[in-house]
Each structure stands twice: as C-alpha cells, then as structure tokens.
Specification:
- The complex is a heterodimer.
- Chain A is built from 24 helices and 19 strands.
- Chain A is α/β, with parallel strands linked by helices.
- Chain A folds into 3 domains: 182 residues, Thiamin diphosphate (ThDP)-binding fold, Pyr/PP domains (Rossmann fold, 3-Layer(aba) Sandwich), CATH 3.40.50; 162 residues, TPP-binding domain (Rossmann fold, 3-Layer(aba) Sandwich); 177 residues, 3-Layer(aba) Sandwich (Rossmann fold), CATH 3.40.50.
- In chain A, helix 4 crosses helix 19.
- By secondary structure, chain B is of the alpha+beta class.
- Chain B folds into 2 domains: 78 residues, Alpha-Beta Plaits (2-Layer Sandwich), CATH 3.30.70.260; 74 residues, Alpha-Beta Plaits, CATH 3.30.70.1150.
- In chain B, 28% of the residues lie in helices and 42% in strands.
- In chain B, strands 5, 6, 7, 8 and 9 form a 5-stranded antiparallel β-sheet that branches. A 4-stranded antiparallel β-sheet of chain B has the order 2-3-1-4, covered by helices on one side.
- The longest helix of chain B is centred in the middle third of the chain and has 13 residues.
- Classes of the chains: A alpha/beta, B alpha+beta.
C-alpha cells in the first residue's frame, strides 16, 4: 500500500499543528483544511493551474496523494473510496481539460448520491472569461451534475468554503460538490483560521420524520395482506442496515433491494427476494406487481426498477421514505410520503411496528415463487460461462469481498450470482451506467479498506476505458484483484441487438483487443488467462494468493444473455426468462 | 391540467444563482414564461419571480427541485394566493402628428403614460397585469408598433402574508 503513514505524532498533535492560525497560501489552507476534515487520501493529477497546490504538497508528508494516470481514474477512485467507506472522496485536477475529464465521474457520483469534494484549478482571476490557455467554465459545465459548486474569489473564503463543501456533500441526500480555485487564489496568502461551523440558510435537510406519517405507515402494515419492501441505496448511505434488519425481523415483510441497495440486507435471508427490475428476480417483480402495499425505503423508482410506469405496482398503496422530498411523487404517485433520513425513520418506526399478521398466505406464496424461479443458467463443461465465473469468485472470496463492477452484462451477473450480505460491498454505477468505472473505483475502495479483499469485475469493453490505472496499482502495490470477463463483444449491446433489433449486430465486435495478460504484465501487474473451469479456478486462486495486484482474463461464451429480462416499455412482470426457464 | 403559475423565489445574491435557477428549469423540462430578478427587502438576498405553466404535479416538482438548490432560501407559490402581479411595457408606436390625439386617448384610458415623443413616433409606458398589457398592445397595433419590450411579471401576495 502506498499510504505514506503519517509521522508517529498523535492525531491530536497533528490536528493542533494543522489548525494553527498563521499566514499561509491558499494552497496550504486547502491541504490543511482537507486534513482537518479527516481526509486520509486524495486522488489527483497536477497541471498548470494547480501548480501552487501541488507545490504545497511537496515535502508535506502528512498529506497522502495518489497520482492516477487520467483524471477520470482519479474521480472514479475517489468515488469507490467514498462508496466503500462512507467518507467523502476527494480528487484534484487542473483547469480546462483536467477539469472536463472529471465530468463523467461527477455525473456518476451525482446520479448515485455519492459524497465527493472535487477540487479544480482555474486560470488566474484576471484571465477568467478571456478564453485563456486551459480555461473552461467548469462551474457552469457541472452545474446540472453537482449538488453545489463554488468558484473561489478570495483566499480568505477558502477555509469556510471547504468546510461547507464537506458538510453539503455528506449530509442530506449526498452528492458531489465542486470547488474551482483560480491560480492566483491558490498562491495568495492570508491568515488561516479553521472553520468549524456552518451557516447555510438555504440548506436544512429534514432528518427526523413526521410522527403522524410514521403512524400511517404502521397502520398500513397492520392492514396489509401483501406487503413488499423496496429498499435502495439510501438505506446503505444512511448506515441503516441494522435498523432495516430489525424492521424486517419485526414486521416479517418480504424485501427486495435495488442494485444500489444490495448488501443493505442479507441476500440469503428467507424474506429477501433478490433485486427487482429489468434483470431482477422473477419473485421480486411479481411480488411488486401483486402487492397491496409497497414501502419504498431510500430508493428513487428508477425506470430500470419500475419498467412501464403506468403499470407499476398497480394494486399497491405506496409509501415512500426518502431524505430528498423531490424524489417523493416524482415518478410514482405516493399515498404516504415520509421525508427523513432512513436510519432516523426506521428508528422511530421500529418502536411502533408489529408483525404483518395478515400476510401469512403472502409469505408462503413468496417462498414458493422463490423456490420455483431462482436465477438460473445452463452451465457448460466446454466453454466458460460468465455466471459460473462470478459464482466461483463468490465461493473463493467466501462472499466477503468488496466487489466493484463496470457496466453491462457482467454487472448484472455480478449482482445475480454474488450474493451480498453486508452494506458497502457492491460498488457499481447504477444511475449513470458509466463504463470505465469498475476498475478505478476498486483502487479507491482498496485505499479505503486496506484489509479487505477488493475484487473488480469488468467486461472486455469497460476494462479498456480506464486500463491505464493498472500503472498505479503496480507502482503503489494496491492489491486489487481484477476479473475481466472477456466475451470479445459489447455484450449488453449485443443482447439488445439480438433481441430487439433482430440480430443486426452493429459495431459491437471487440475482437482484436489487446492481450489482457500482456497488458497487465506491461504495467507490472500479474496476469492470468483461463479458458475452462479448471484453469479459471486455478488462476483465480493464484491471483487471490498473490500479495499484489493481479488480473485474470476469463474467456467466456460470447452469445450468453442476461436473463430474466424486461424489455423497455413492458411492465416488470412481463419477463423474458430465456435460458433460465 | 396545465395552468399558469407565479412563483417567487428568495435567493442568495450570489454570482451564478440566476444560471442555477434557469438551468434547473431547462434541464427538467419546466417552462419559463417570464422571469424577473432584483433586490429584495433583505440585503444579500434577491427575489426572482417566475411565471411558468404546468399541471399541479409539475408545480410541486418545480418547488421541490428549487429547494434543493443551496442558494434558494424560500419558494412561494404566489399565484395560489390573492396577489398583485404587475409588469411594465415600453411600446414605441408609429405616431404621425395627426394620429397622436387618438393614441393619447388610448393611453389615457389605460392610465398609461407617454414617456418620449419623436418626429413620427412615441414611446408609451404601460404598467399593469399581463392582460392589460396585451389589450393595450392590441389597440396600438393599427398605428404600427416599431419596438416593444416587456419586463415580465413581478408579483406579491396581498395583505399581511
């Protein structure tokens, strides 16, 4: 691990050292403020407009910075760090192209409510607006994809702005906050005084629920014969997995967790129905469509979950618990809205709820559905099946790894065949669906969890979108275990072209991609290839045993499709079962 | 059902705040019929008044989405209350000396004012609700409207609220 261990001084001594009021540059203020916010690792890439900031890092051993090979790698790593730890992820880039290279990562974090503080340099204040070299209006560009943003005009404002940014990023509905610092501001000197309080008149997230609304929820549960819980990422982000477990145990209501909610509740639990939606379980989708009460806890009724909105949960009374009032009623008309932090709401509800006594028949029905319609695929001894590979990864990591995925078929197979039992174990781009996210986010997850096994499951397409970060794994000995499910095609696009576009396979052939083993080795990462089960298991176990980073290329069947599948425009109970029938 | 809504938004007087608000409307597909911005009763805060059209669900979403902006302090659905809504229009109308008495007659009826007279044109200033401005413009059209500008609506709830 590269974490430069801070000197042996105690935390208190360090905080005292960083907090000392003295006249320093904006750059030093930035670094000290980040340290005072508890930041222990920053991902970044230097350039002209952040030269003073990087100069301040020189010889400042308290500050740990990981140099990526592309700004996109830096921000996805910061994202993986944030999702896996619950702390704010931080990245730094220079002005112009440095800043615009962050845009995909900012949008990724925004869609999935991930707390990031994104720091960009900009050209000197006197040059702003002149189309100067490497000038870009990054505040303007990112306005629709940030929770908030700052353009720093005066160095004196910097400590306050940084403190506010961390507060905004990691409270309420979490999200990325951008701080754009002109070069002269990072060079200017002023008296540094740490800011400990926040005064934001326009920002007061509602945490505690309205008791009357919770009472309505309790009554709805008592009356319900076919209740379903739909739990999303909000349950994980608010740290509510224990409260959720208590809630389910008390009410005995069958539960489905969305892609981002996987891990909020143990997948193996008898009341867990898997994840819902386009590639979710038959049981979860059928249960939602037949429910008379649907309790949404920290999910946002994404179209990949609801399918055709007008036919979604047609018989259900809808309860929606969310920290963001704007999500309630946005897509699905809601009968009982509850605004509040999921953890706080469940703490109140847990004192009041009782077992859903009228739902015994329903519970029996769901057990029968679960038994008759599990995820299924046709295994083969001739070719490697991607589902088998994921199951093997699950088995060999004892289900205890942090798994990051890229986007596409492998992402769905990871969600289907790696049962998650703990929160913050699956790191995946659900909302934006960002290819290139899987591998660099694993680097961040490993930095934040040095003692955990971090596995990154990728396709051969997405792996090539941020492969350059293999370098930082090798150089810093970040022991991420990378699986590449190589089917030599953009599999999910292939699947849609096969099923929706009548086998018109347009521009999806990835044959001729580099030899992934050689690619890994070129960067100094151990590489393995497997084409059958025996090789696969041997290579993977060796990769796990290897103390450093390792990549295993699994050559898998090209024509494999993800099932079940709900095609766009269908209600979620109209599922193509494919091979799993 | 689509209706006209008048919303007042109290915002921090910060650079970029107009862009945040108008950008939100554009991005979420909300319509802006008019937008006015200016100082409010409190230093450091500005008040925007936006006239928009949409159904009740859209209005609710607009309010909720606006509240997510950190620089937005308060959102008031002025239009759902008894309100005073005013807009100012400047209309440069063709006015040969022979036509002026007729035009002045219209101006007087509408309690408008003539604020500039040129050799063959005059500028009429009219203040009132949007319907009044529409009516006035309609009546001035036959004389030839050379140029026109409207401020958009600013509004306030009547009484003590």
């Amino acid at each position: 691990m590269s974490a430069q261990s801070a000197t042996l001084k105690s935390k208190e001594e360090l905080i005292e050292k960083w907090s000392k009021p003295e006249v320093i540059t904006g750059s030093e203020m930035l670094l000290r403020s980040l340290l005072l916010e508890g930041v222990d690792c920053v991902f970044g890439y230097p350039g002209g407009a952040v030269l003073y900031i990087y100069d301040a890092m020189y010889g400042f051993s308290d500050f740990n910075h990981l140099l990526t090979r592309h700004e996109q790698g830096a921000i996805h790593a910061a994202d993986g760090y944030a999702r896996s730890t619950g702390k704010v992820g931080v990245c730094i880039a220079t002005s112009g192209p440095g800043a615009t290279n962050l845009v995909t990562g900012i949008a990724t974090a925004y869609m999935d409510s991930v707390p990031l503080v994104v720091i960009t340099g900009n050209v000197m204040s006197s040059l702003i607006g002149t189309d100067a070299f490497q000038e870009a209006d990054i505040v303007g560009i990112t306005m629709p994809i940030t929770k908030h943003s700052y353009f720093v005009r005066n160095v004196e404002d910097l400590p306050r702005i940084i403190h506010e940014a961390f507060h905004i990023a990691n409270t309420g509905r979490k999200g990325p906050v951008l701080i754009d610092i002109p070069k002269d501001v990072s060079a200017a000197k002023a008296l540094f005084q740490p800011v400990k309080e926040v005064h934001l008149r326009g920002y007061n997230p509602t945490v505690q629920p309205n008791r009357n609304q919770v009472d309505k929820l309790v009554r709805a549960i008592e009356e319900s014969e076919r209740p379903v819980l739909l739990v999303g990422g909000g349950a994980i982000y608010s740290g509510a997995h224990e409260e959720l477990y208590e809630f389910v145990t008390k009410t005995q209501i069958p539960i489905t967790t969305t892609l981002l909610g996987l891990g909020a509740f143990p997948t193996g639990h008898e009341l867990h129905m898997g994840f819902p939606g386009m590639h979710g379980t038959w049981t979860a989708n059928t249960a939602i469509q037949n429910a008379d009460l649907l309790i949404n806890i920290g999910a946002r009724f994404d179209d990949r979950v609801t399918g055709k909105l007008s036919g979604f949960a047609p018989h259900a009374k809808i309860v929606h618990i969310d920290i963001d009032p704007a999500e309630i009623g946005k897509n699905v008309p809601t009968d009982i809205p509850i605004v509040g932090d999921v953890k706080a709401v469940l703490q109140v509800a847990n004192k009041l709820v009782k077992r859903a006594d009228k739902a015994d028949v329903w519970r029996t029905q769901i057990q029968a559905w679960k038994a008759s319609k599990p995820f299924k695929y046709i295994d083969s001894d001739k070719e490697l099946k991607p589902q088998w590979v994921v199951s093997m990864i699950h088995e060999t990591t004892k289900g205890d790894a942090i798994v990051t995925t890229d986007v596409g078929q492998h992402q769905m197979w990871a969600a289907q065949y790696y049962p998650f039992n703990k929160p913050r174990s699956l790191i995946t781009s659900g909302g934006l669906g960002t290819m290139g996210f899987g591998f660099p986010s694993a680097i961040g997850a490993q930095m934040g969890n040095p003692d955990r096994t971090v596995v990154s499951i990728n396709g051969d397409g997405g792996m090539q979108m941020c492969a350059q970060e293999l370098a930082i794994c090798a150089i810093n000995n970040i022991p991420v275990k990378i699986a590449v499910l190589n089917n030599q095609v953009l599999g999910m696009v292939r699947q849609w072209q096969e099923l929706i576009h009548e086998n018109r396979y347009s521009h999806i052939d990835l044959a001729g991609s580099p030899d992934f083993v050689k690619l890994a080795e070129a960067y100094g990462v151990r590489g393995f290839r497997a084409t059958n089960k025996e090789e696969a298991r041997r290579a993977w176990e060796e990769a796990l045993k290897h103390p450093g980073p390792a990549l295993v290329e699994f050559v898998v069947r090209k024509e494999e499709n993800v099932y079940p599948m709900v095609t766009q425009g269908s209600t979620i109970d109209q599922m193509l079962m494919g091979d799993s029938e | 059902m689509n209706r006209k809504h008048t919303i007042a938004i109290l915002v921090n007087d910060q650079p970029g705040v107009l862009q945040r608000v108008s950008g939100l409307f554009g991005r979420r597909g909300f319509n802006i019929e008019s937008i006015t911005v200016g100082a409010s009763e409190e230093p450091g805060l500005s008040r925007m008044v936006i006239v928009t059209t949409g159904d009740d669900h859209t209005l609710e979403q607009i309010q909720k989405q606006l509240y997510k902006l950190i620089d937005v302090i308060k959102v008031i659905d002025v239009g759902s209350n008894p309100m005073v809504a005013r807009e100012l229009g400047l209309i440069k109308v063709g006015a040969e000396p022979s036509a002026r008495p007729e035009i002045l007659g219209i101006v007087e009826t509408f309690r408008a004012a003539v604020v500039d007279i040129g050799p063959n044109s005059m500028i009429v200033q009219v203040v009132g609700d949007s319907d009044k401005l529409d009516a006035m413009i309609e009546l001035l059209k036959p004389y030839g409207i050379r140029e026109m500008t409207r401020t958009g609506v600013t509004a306030m709830i009547r009484g003590n609220r």
